[in-house]
Design goal:
By secondary structure, the chain is mostly helical. The chain contains three helices and two strands. The protein has helices spanning about 1-55, 65-90, 115-120, and strands at about 90-95, 100-105. Strands 1-2 form a two-stranded antiparallel sheet. A hairpin with a 6-residue loop joins strand 1 and strand 2 (about 100-105). The longest helix has about 55 residues, at about 1-55.
Length: about 120
């Protein structure tokens, strides 16, 4: 009987160890997910801070970041050009007031109601 008692204690002990290991793995996975979430939050804050700084200083010609500002402006201009090209290929236009996509030649914006020929004449 002593053999079976020791075997039972060993199995119970092993089960507790496995259970603890499973809890540890679960806790580590949760912590890693929380860490990743916080890192993503920090990255978004850095990006928002950078955008705010860029908006505030983009016209400062004598700042240290003038070259980076120029490169960002070039990239933004190119993005705008490429988006216009996509719309042209799709036979669509973008409302200059609200940015809604509509068929090319539309007289009014279907989203905000702006008369488009007035917008294009400005």
């Amino acid at each position: 009987m002593d053999f079976f008692d020791k075997l039972g204690e060993t199995l119970v002990s092993a089960g507790k160890d496995v259970g603890q290991k499973a809890r540890d793995v679960s806790e580590i996975a949760k912590l890693k997910l929380d860490i990743k979430s916080k890192e993503d939050f920090v990255q978004k804050q850095y990006a928002a801070l950078g955008e705010a700084y860029y908006a505030k200083h983009k016209d400062d010609e004598n700042c240290e970041e003038a070259e980076q500002f120029f490169l960002i402006k070039e990239a933004l201009d190119e993005i705008t050009r490429m988006k216009s090209e996509v719309l042209r290929i799709q036979g669509a236009a973008e409302c200059p007031k609200c940015g809604a996509k509509m068929p090319e030649g539309a007289v009014f914006c279907s989203s905000c109601g702006t008369k488009l020929d007035d917008m294009f004449e400005e």
